[in-house]
Amino acid sequence: xxxxxxxxxxxxxxxxxxxxxxxxxxxxxxxxxxxxxxxxxxxxxxxxxxxxxxxxxxxxxxxxxxxxxxxxxxxxxxxxxxxxxxxxxxxxxxxxxxxxxxxxxxxxxxxxxxxxxxxxxxxxxxxxxxxxxxxxxxxxxxxxxxxxxxxxxxxxxxxxxxxxxxxxxxxxxxxxxxxxxxxxxxxxxxxxxxxxxxxxxxxxxxxxxxxxxxxxxxxxxxxxxxxxxxxxxx
Length: 234
Ligand code: URA
Prior knowledge:
By secondary structure, the protein is an alpha+beta fold. The protein is built from 6 helices and 13 strands. Bound molecules: uracil.
């Protein structure tokens, strides 16, 4: 088929948007930039947009290493959003973050356009585990660990399900927390019950899938089919 038809299908954009992508030099065929929309291609060709392999997919699932200062939303009037960081590669997809990190937090944010998948993994009864590395302004105490294991009751009376916390550093200020639910500002509020403040918070994994260490803050990649299935518990 023609390259512009192929790109329109794989990038989910209109033919004219596809031609624009091609003419601007963002598309390569077998390693060479191709600016001709009428170039004939087939499934044996290696076609990339912005250096990333481009095949038709029903849905997109991305792993982003969220930098500080970026908000977990699709659009925002003032701040850069996690979707702003990836949208250029998927011009017509209606992407959104499946789960949020605070503006100051960093690490793994899953971005998708698959509403059913997001609904499923965020459902409270699914308990998809999420792991965080947290820097505290005071050392972890045995009381905090016991409280987390029993289930913390927040200042507003919300009773949380059990969570795990373990010290990672000798001074007890760097800890790993595993949550099985998602409540707004959950970790900060949990430590707040014990008078401890959170200086930094980084999400390391979702559903047993670790954030790819090769991704610098702001970088992202597509999840593999195996990773998507693992997070979905399939
Ligand atoms: N808990 C928080 O308090 N903030 C986050 O960003 C994630 C979990």
